[in-house]
Amino acid sequence: MKKQQLAQVHTGVGPEQWPEVVDAAWQEQMVVQYAPLIKYIAGRLALRLPSHISMDDLISSGIIGLIDAIHKFDPSKNISFKTYAEFRIKGAILDELRSLDWIPRSVRKKSHLLEKACAELERHLGRPPEPEEISEALGLELEEFYQLLDETKAVSLVELEGLWRTHRVAPELSESEITEILQDDNARDPFLALHFSELQDLMVQAIDSLPDKEKLLISLYYYEELTMKEIGEIMGYTESRISQLHTQAMVRLRARLREALQQGGK
What we know:
This protein is mainly alpha-helical and about 270 residues long.
C-alpha cells in the first residue's frame, strides 16, 4: 500500500475529534482503523530482515506501540495522530528487534569492517568510493562484495537508526521513550533537543554527500515510500541490485555519522 493510499485510508483523527477520556471502546476503534498502518510499517521493515523473523511478532510489537500512542497522544500538540502513531509503532518494532539480538556476531563484524573500509577510503579519496574500490580494499571480488552487502543489509535497519544513542545523547532510552520526549515540549531536555537538531543536520549533510544514484534511492524509498521493486523499475535496475545499493548507502551514512559523532565527543 502506497503512501498516497494510506493517506486516503487514514485521513487521521483531528484534535477536535479526540475524546477527553480514552476508554476501551475508543481504543478498539482506533486499533481497527490503524491496523493497516501497522501491517504497512511492519511489512516494509520485514523486507530488510531475514526470513526467520516472524511478521506476526513485528505486528504484535506494532500493536503495542499503537496502543501506547492512543493513550499518550496529546491533541493540544497540533500534530496528527497518524504521524504520532507512525513514530510509536516503528519505535516499538525496532525496540523489539534490538531486544532479540537476532543479528549474528559474525555478520555484525563483517558490517563493521565494511563500514570502516568505506570511511577510510572516503577520507583518502576525498569522495565516496566506488564499489570496485571498496571490494579491492577488502580483498574481495566484486561479486563477493555484493554478496557481502546482501549478508549485512539487516544491520543497517537497527544500527543506523540507533547509532546516535550510543554517542552521548540518550543511551538509556528506548526508541518509544525518545519519541515520547520529542512530542512533549514540557518534558523535552534542552540538551537532548540540541543533539537531535545536530543529528538532523549531520544526516542532511551525509545524505547530500551520497552519489546521485544512492541519493535518489533514499528519496524514493524514505520520502516517496516506494518499494524496492518500484524503485528498480524507475532506475533501471533489478530489485536485488536496488537492495544492494540501499545497503551501500546505509554503510556510507553510518560511517559518516559515526565519524562525526565520535569527533564531536572528543
